[in-house]
Queue: 2 jobs
Job 1
Amino acid sequence: MSIVNAKDMLIKATGEKYAVGAFNITNLIQMEAVVEAAVNKKAPLIIQISVTPSKFLGAIVLADIYKTLAESAPIPICLHLDHCTDVEYCKVCADAGYTNIMIDASKQIFQENIKQTKEVCDYCHSIGNISVEGELGTVSGIEDQVKVAEDEAALCDPGQALTFVEQTGVDIFAPAIGTAHGVYKTKNPKLDFDRLEKISELINGEEIKIPLVIHGGTGLKPDVSKKLVSLGGSKFNVSTDLKHALIDATHNYISSHRDEYNPGKIDIAVKKDIMSRVEYWIDILGCAGKA
Ligand code: 13P
C-alpha cells in the first residue's frame, strides 16, 4: 500500500478528524525510527526533509531509501520536501521521487506566491501523482512568535486563502495562525484558533478539498494540538522535538560510555528515543490504527 502522496491520506484524516504526523528527519537512523514507530502504531506517516539535509544527503538517495522502506511497510508513507523556496529544487525533488512538495513562497508578495506555487503545482501534477503544499502568511521563527501572533497582517487572511487555493491548484494548504518553528518561549503561545476554523470552513466546509497543515508542532501542549486537529488541521509538523531527541540521546550515550567506541550503540539509543517521541505525537494526533 505504501508509497502515497499527502493529499489522499489527508483528505481521509480531515474527514475522520485526526491528523497525520509529519516528522522531519536529517539522516537514515531518524528515517528508520519514524517509520518503525508509525508501523508499531499502525499510523499513516509523512516523512519530511528540509532543503539543506535533502541537498546534503541527495534527493535521489533519499527518495530511493524512502521507496525501499515504504514498499516493505504495511502503512501508507509519503516523502515530503519541507519549506523549499526554490521552484527549481522543488522540481528536482519531484523528479527524484518525493511524493509531496512544499513550495514556500510565503515571503513573496501575494501574486508572486501564487505564481510560484502554481508553477510547482503544474509541474508536479504533470509528471505524476505528486501533491503540493503551499503557505500563506508568516509561520515565524521562535524569536518572532509573539510579534507575528499579534500582527493581524502577518497571519493568513481567510479571503486571500480562498483565492490562493483556487488560483494555484495547490493540494494541501498551510495557513499562518500564529504557530512558530522551534521551542515556544512562552508556556501558552498565542494562536488564532478562530482564524483556523474560519479558513477550514471556507475551504473545506461543503466538501473536503484542500487539507490544512499545522506548522510548528514542537512545544504545543496536547490539548492545544488536539484543538488544532479538531478545527481542521490534518497534517501536523514536528521537527525541533526530534532534533532534540537525536542530540540529547547522542550526548547522554557518549557521556555515560566515554571509553566505548561503538557507533552502532549510539544509533540504537538515538532510534529508541526518536521512536518514543514519534509514538507520543501519534497518540496525541489520533492517527494510531488509521493506516
Ligand atoms: P517545529 O520545529 O516547531 O516542530 O516545526 C516543524 C515544522 O513546522 C516544519 O515545517
Job 2
Amino acid sequence: MSNADTTAATTAPATETETAATTAPATETETETAATTAPAAASATAVVGSADYRDSGLAFPADFVFGSATASYQIEGAATEDGRGPSIWDTFSHTPGKIWNGDTGDVADDHYHRLETDLDLMKNLGLESYRFSIAWPRIQATGTGPANPAGLDFYTRLVDGLVARGIKPIATLYHWDLPQALEDQGGWANRETAYAFAEYARIMGEALGDKIVTWTTLNEPWCSAYLGYGSGAHAPGRMNGADALAAVHHLNLAHGLAVTALKKVVTNDPAFSITLNLHVIRGDGETGPEAVRQIDGLANRVFLGPLLHGSYPEDVFEDTADVTDWAFVHDGDLELIHQPLDLLGVNYYSTTLVRIWDGVTPRANNDGHKDMGGSPWPGADRIEFLAQPGPYTEMGWNIEPAGLEELLMSLHAEFPTLPLMVTENGAAFADEVTTSVDESGATVSAVHDLERIDYLQRHFTAAHRALSRGVDLRGYQVWSLMDNFEWGYGYSKRFGIVYIDFDTQERILKDSAKWYSTLIATRSIPPLER
Ligand code: FCB
C-alpha cells in the first residue's frame, strides 16, 4: 500500500503527533468508542485516542478472533522423522554461511513431540484461534505422490486437539517449506510446482476439510519469490530477478489452483484466504512518489492485482521489461488466479521509506532484509531504501503502529467488502529470563518483556482504530506463540510471547503472554502498568 493512494495520503502523516489529529479526531473517537469501549470498570480507566497509540480499555467485538501464529519449519523439529522429506529450508540451513550461528530447524521447539502440552499451553492462554502451517514434505516427501499417513496423522491430531479445546484451526498450506525435490526441478520458477501444490491442497482438503475454519493457501508469497529467488536471503537462496518474477506468477497461480482444488473437497464452510506482507511505503522528497509507485507495484500490486482484480499492473511489466518478458503468464492464468476470497490475511511489522537513488552517493539499502548479495527488487536498481526513525525492534525494524491502521484503511478503501484479518504482528526483543523464589520456596522463572507488551498494545490500538473507522477486521493472530527459528537469523531473534529455552525446551510464559491472556479474557486492551 502506498501513500500514492488517496486514503494513505490522509492516514499516513509524517509524525505520530499528527496522526492523532488526522486519524482520530476527538469527536469521532468519543462517539465511536462509546459503542466499543469496555463496560464498567474498564471504561473507568480507558485511554482513547492517544497520540502514541497507547490506548487501553478499548473493547473488541464479540466475534473478533484473538489467536496466535506459528509456522511448521520454525517450530516443529523432527526434521527427518516419520517419513518427512527434506525441504528447501533443510538444505539451505545446512549450507554453511546461510543462517546466523549455523542454526537449523532440525529440532527447533520440538513441537512435533510436544504437541499435547503445547496445545494445553494455548488453551491455558485462552487463545481462540491458532494459525499454524502444514509442512508439505511431511505430507509428500518429494512433493508429489501419495500422502504419508504419519504426516496426515500429525496434523489430524493437531487439529483435533485444537477443536477439542475450543480453539479455531487456521491452516496455512505453505509457509515456505517447499519439498527439495520440487526445487531440484526448478522450484517456484517452474510452472509445474503450482500444479503439484494444488494436488497437495486437495490431499489436505480431504484430510482436514471438515474442521479447518480458515484455509490460507500461501504465507507471504513476496518472501517466497523475492527473498528466495531474488536476494538469496531465504531458501532456496537463488539470486535471479527473472526467476523471482516467474516465482511471483507461479505462486499466484498456485493460490488460485489450490483454492479451486480445496473447494471441491471440503465439507464444511471455511473461509478461503491468502496472507500477504503488504508493504506500507512512504516516499522521501521529490522523487518519493515515483519510487513509491515502483515499489508498490513489486511489493503489493503484483499480488493484489491478479488475486483481487484479475489483472497484473501494466507498470510492473514496464518496470521489469529488462528483467523478463513475462512469457510465463499463459492465456487463462488470470482467470485461474482470480478466485473469490473470503478473507485477506495481513501481516504487518513496520514501514518502508524509498526515493530514487542519485547514482552518486552510496545507495541506501535499508529494506529490512538480510543482504546476501542479490536484490529482492527486480528492475528497481534505481531505488534506494532509507533508514527510518526509531524506535526499533531487535530486527532493526522501525516501530510504527500508524502504518497498520493506514494499511487496513487503504485495503478497506480498495476492497470495501473484503473481510481482513491480521494474521501476523509482533516483535523481537532481547528477552532475559529472571528467577525468583516464591512463598513455597520454589524457583519461578519470568520474562519481563515490557517492550513487547508496549508494541502489542500500540498495534492492537491501531487495529481497533481501523475497526472503529469501519474496517471489517475479523481477528488478530499474534506472531508468535513461541520463540522459534527466525529464518536467516536462526534462534537469535525471539518473537514469542512464550519463551523457549532451546537447551531444555522449557516453555516460560513471558509477561506479554499474560498480558495477552488478559486482553482475550476481557476482550479489551489492558492498561499498561509502567
Ligand atoms: C514473517 C514470517 C514469519 C516470521 C515473521 C517475523 O515474514 O511470515 O514466519 O518470520 O516474519
